[in-house]
């Protein structure tokens, strides 16, 4: 659970989104839908069938023509936080950071009047009930606290099957991308379903700089599969090339599709380094 | 290519040690990682370059193996032909132990091969002398620059059945070294230890051997053999044959280093008994031993004169048939081996047979009696004959009343420097002259008298049974004097018959020798004796120190030594290994 002090610090921040909100009930975000709020957005001539209550009678008196007032309607946003809860996330503080990030984004979203749904991917997919308001944050925190990283990751399969709320929304995917079926189709699927996708890539220091030497028997934490390797200079160099390829590939993939991407290390301090990185990437502001 | 220090081959053990260390190091550590995803991609990339990667992964191992191999090579000190210059004396040990076979090759053949390899390393103009050290030292070839001839000489050498006079050969070589600067002296031997200025090329490394050290046979036909085990505990079988017929077989177990007397049953009256060890070992030469029975023989002695002392003293020998006769009748007696004249001589001395004349009245052969004298003390003269005849005599108690000094011959006893007893030999006919009447001295009353007479008889009529005993190969055998024999010959074990002189020199062959004398009238006298290799040659368990690196003067090392180049290669390889370990590590 995030501390009260940290939550008070978060009160001064908000979740920044690129696209306008489009949701159901009234919220605190401006949407493209013209509605009934007090902020006038535009005018147009009256057409048969229009609501006469929105006719600008002052304009009619001045121009003797019927104009309708168009208002910017304020709506809530559907925020989907997809958390990779597979066994690979358990290593070296990755899970703790991912949990905290999910809470942080949930808090910011709920405080902004958005509706939040939390999803735990890995093994059997679990999801929270749609959350809203301060009470929703507490339920969301409980949901997250009850999760334990286990099972195998199948990002694409899991996301494709995900029952997202129809309509536009925001999807935050927190994962280490250690998924045998890749991540590209998952992100494309979110985008296809009109989600403003953000990828938060969490890695541990051990994954960035493996401290291995000599002949080793590597065991996959998710599948239990073992592989005998000789961790010599050549293999470590090949590993770094593969990691670099993953990082650069994910970043390029997101940039090409106007998705936001941020890589975070699990040994980062959340309240200073991680928050600073999130702000730097424009995810919060 | 030759190896100056073959024992350096033990350094190859390092190869096995390095391999074992790598195998032990291959134990992998189990590590749980979040996901194998990236590792599999990395491994797949390595897989694409597998042959190169495998080589790269093992390159340190290969480099270290190569280093160990080169170190072993450096220890073995490789050399190639073409580097030796100067003059060399090669001394070959021809002792019987050089016949020991190790690894299917005799020690002598090993020595010969090493010598020929050294000859290959010589250059035109180099000189070589080949000395052989057998029972005597011989110069096989002296200071020749004809290396092909030297090779031929070395190829024709063969070990003997005797010991080796290596010290004498080395002394000869050292004498040469005083005149020839930078002379290399090499001894090719299994036992000789290197000394200052003398290098040893070792042949053999030690082998197990069983040997028959002695054999005697009783008149009842019981053979006593002494067998020694120069090696680990072993079961052996002894076969005993009498005159070529197998008589007895005995099996026994010998502990390591044990020597034991074994009783075997041979046939009574057998002329030749042979015992042999059935099992093969390093040295076959000492696995056989012979015993030759002595034939009974007798000498005919004519005693002229009435001297009871002489008669009793001569009759002590049981192989003598004593005949009494007057001096003038003696010549008429037939087949007399020894004539003893006490006092006056006959008008004409017998034409054959040896002579013992006591106080003769005229010269006998070249021994001439002089004027009568008296007084003085007896002393033994110098010389081999005097030593033999005066052996065990106490001359101080012998007193003389009158005597006649003798001139000529070989003095045996002297009084005041003049000969009192002299011996002589003419054309194989021995004679002895005593220059005083026995009655003019107290000698016949002394216990020394029969001793003197027996010694004189031993000189004049050697007992075949004692003079032709078993002996050691290579040592000359003194044959009995010709006496009245018309012809004498010795048949060697290989069947060759030699006309015998006084000394038989050709005794290198091991086995039974037969000595035969023929007399007038077809009478024949035969004696057999057996010669064996020197027993001290049988212990072939130990050899001397291994060959140290040969340092030949006048041209550096034997051949062109490659060790410096190998060391350079090691240095280069070390640098490569250091670079690779930095990259790989």
Summarize the structure in words.
The complex is a heterodimer of chains A (285) and B (585). With 285 residues, chain A is α/β, with parallel strands linked by helices. Chain A folds into two domains: 26-75, no CATH class; 78-280, von Willebrand factor, type A domain (Rossmann fold), CATH 3.40.50.410. Helices cover 35% and strands 28% of the residues of chain A. Chain A contains nine helices and ten strands. In chain A, the strands form three sheets. A six-stranded mixed sheet of chain A has the order 5-4-3-6-7-10, with helices on both faces. In chain A, strand 3 (78-84), helix 3 and strand 4 form a beta-alpha-beta unit. In chain A, helix 3 packs antiparallel against helix 4 (133-145). Mean pLDDT of chain A is 82; it is low at 20-38. Chain B has 585 residues and is an alpha+beta fold. Chain B contains eleven helices and 35 strands. In chain B, strand 7 (127-133) and strand 8 (137-144) form a beta hairpin. The A-B interface holds A 87-91, 94, 176, 178-180, 204, 206-207, 210, 212, 214-223, 225-230, 232-236, 238-239, 241-243, 245-246 and B 25-43, 45-46, 53, 56-57, 583-585. Strand 8 of chain A pairs parallel with strand 2 of chain B, so a sheet runs across the interface.
């Amino acid at each position: 659970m995030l501390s009260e002090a940290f939550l008070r610090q978060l009160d001064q921040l908000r979740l920044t989104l690129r696209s306008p909100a489009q949701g159901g009930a009234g919220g605190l975000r401006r949407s493209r839908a013209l509605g009934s709020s007090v902020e006038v957005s535009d005018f147009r001539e009256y057409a048969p069938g229009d609501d006469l209550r929105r006719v600008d009678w002052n304009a009619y008196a001045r121009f003797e023509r019927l104009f309708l007032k168009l208002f910017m309607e304020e709506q809530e946003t559907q925020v989907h936080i997809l958390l990779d809860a597979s066994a690979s996330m358990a290593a070296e503080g990755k899970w703790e950071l991912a949990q905290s990030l999910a809470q942080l984004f949930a808090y910011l979203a709920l405080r902004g009047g958005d509706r939040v749904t939390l999803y735990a991917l890995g093994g059997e997919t679990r999801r929270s009930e749609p959350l809203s308001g301060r009470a929703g944050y507490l339920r969301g925190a409980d949901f997250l606290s009850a999760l334990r990283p286990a099972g195998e990751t199948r990002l694409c399969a899991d996301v494709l099957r995900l029952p997202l709320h129809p309509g536009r929304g925001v999807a935050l995917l927190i994962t280490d991308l250690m998924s045998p079926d890749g991540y590209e189709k998952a992100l494309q699927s979110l985008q296809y379903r009109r989600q403003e996708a953000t990828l938060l890539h969490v890695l541990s220091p051990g994954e960035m700089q493996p401290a291995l030497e000599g002949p080793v028997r590597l065991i996959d934490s998710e599948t239990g599969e073992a592989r005998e390797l000789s961790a010599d200079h050549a293999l470590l160099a090949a590993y770094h090339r593969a990691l670099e390829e993953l990082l650069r590939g994910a970043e390029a993939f997101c940039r090409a599709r106007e998705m936001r991407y941020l890589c975070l290390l699990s040994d980062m301090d959340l309240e200073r380094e991680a928050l600073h990185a999130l702000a730097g990437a424009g995810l919060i502001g | 290519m030759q190896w100056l220090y073959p024992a350096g081959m033990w350094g190859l053990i390092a190869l096995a040690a390095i391999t074992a260390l790598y195998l032990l190091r291959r134990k992998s550590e189990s590590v749980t990682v979040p996901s194998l995803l990236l590792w599999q991609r990395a491994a797949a990339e390595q897989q694409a370059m597998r042959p190169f990667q495998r080589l790269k992964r093992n390159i340190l191992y290969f480099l270290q193996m190569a280093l160990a191999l080169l170190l072993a090579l450096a220890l073995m000190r490789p050399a190639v032909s073409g580097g030796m210059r100067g003059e060399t004396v090669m001394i070959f040990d021809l002792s019987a132990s050089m016949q020991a076979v190790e690894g299917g090759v005799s020690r002598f053949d090993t020595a010969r091969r090493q010598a020929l390899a050294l000859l290959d390393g010589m250059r035109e103009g180099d000189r070589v002398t080949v000395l052989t050290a057998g029972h005597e030292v011989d110069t096989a070839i002296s200071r020749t620059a004809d290396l092909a001839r030297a090779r031929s000489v070395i190829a024709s050498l063969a070990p003997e059945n005797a010991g080796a006079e290596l010290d004498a050969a080395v002394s000869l070589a050292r004498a040469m070294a005083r005149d020839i600067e930078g002379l290399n002296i090499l001894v090719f031997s299994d036992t000789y230890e290197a000394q200052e200025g003398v290098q040893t090329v070792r042949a053999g490394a030690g082998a197990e051997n069983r040997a028959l050290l002695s054999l005697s046979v009783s008149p009842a036909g019981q053979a006593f053999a002494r067998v020694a085990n120069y090696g680990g505990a072993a079961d052996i079988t002894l076969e005993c044959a009498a005159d070529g017929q197998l008589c007895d077989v005995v099996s026994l177990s010998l502990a390591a280093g044990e020597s034991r007397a074994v009783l075997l049953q041979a046939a009574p009256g057998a002329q030749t008994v042979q015992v042999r060890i059935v099992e093969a070992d390093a040295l076959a030469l000492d696995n056989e031993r012979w015993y030759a029975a002595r034939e009974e023989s007798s000498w005919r002695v004519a005693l002229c004169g009435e001297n009871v002392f002489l008669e009793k003293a001569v009759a002590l020998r049981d192989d003598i048939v004593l005949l009494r006769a007057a001096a003038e009748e003696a010549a008429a007696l037939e087949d007399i081996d020894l004539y003893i004249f006490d006092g006056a001589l006959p008008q004409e001395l017998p034409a054959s047979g040896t002579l013992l004349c006591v106080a003769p009245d005229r010269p006998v052969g070249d021994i001439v009696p002089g004027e009568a004298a008296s007084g003085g003390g007896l002393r033994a003269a110098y010389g081999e004959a005097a030593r033999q005849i005066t052996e065990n005599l106490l001359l101080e108690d012998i007193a003389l009343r009158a005597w006649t000094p003798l001139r000529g011959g070989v003095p045996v006893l002297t009084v005041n420097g003049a000969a009192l007893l002299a011996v002589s030999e003419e054309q194989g006919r021995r004679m002895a002259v005593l220059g005083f009447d026995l009655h003019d001295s107290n000698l016949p009353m002394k216990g020394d008298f029969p001793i003197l007479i027996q010694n004189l008889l031993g000189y004049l009529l050697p007992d075949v049974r004692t003079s032709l005993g078993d002996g050691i190969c290579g040592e000359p055998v003194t044959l009995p004097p010709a006496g009245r024999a018309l012809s004498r010959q010795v048949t060697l074990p290989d069947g060759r018959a030699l006309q015998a002189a006084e000394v038989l020199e050709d005794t290198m062959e091991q086995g039974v020798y037969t000595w035969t004398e023929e007399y007038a009238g077809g009478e024949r006298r035969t004696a057999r004796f057996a010669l064996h290799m020197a027993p001290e040659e049988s212990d072939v368990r130990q050899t001397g120190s291994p060959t140290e690196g040969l340092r030949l003067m006048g041209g550096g090392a034997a051949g062109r030594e490659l060790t410096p180049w190998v060391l350079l290669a090691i240095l280069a390889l070390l640098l490569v290994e250091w670079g690779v370990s930095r990259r790989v590590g």
